[in-house]
Amino acid sequence: MLALAALVAAIQHGCDPFPELEAAAARNGVAVGSEEFDEAAALAGQPYCRALDLYVDRETKRRADALGPGMAHLAFLPA
Questions:
Q1: Would you call 63 helix, strand, or coil by DSSP?
Q2: What is the DSSP letter of 30?
Q3: Do the Cβ atoms of 3 and 44 come closer than 8 Å?
Q4: Taking the domains of the chain in order of start, what are their residue ranges?
Q5: What is the pLDDT of residues 42-62, one digit of tens each?
């Protein structure tokens, strides 16, 4: 439900869904970083990447996971 609310708000306002997801989570008493928030973030297209300790787009997460924790920062470089 959080992801859906965030995506709808982002479409309506023409903005990034992540701030909308944070706002929806706050309104519903869901802590950023909780399992529920992480699931919603993934559904909204910005999964949590443990290697980077950040919420990133799916492609960056895929590259960071493939590189591993020691080299994950290289996932931000152009492919």
A1: helix
A2: P
A3: yes
A4: 2-76
A5: 999 999 999 999 999 999 999
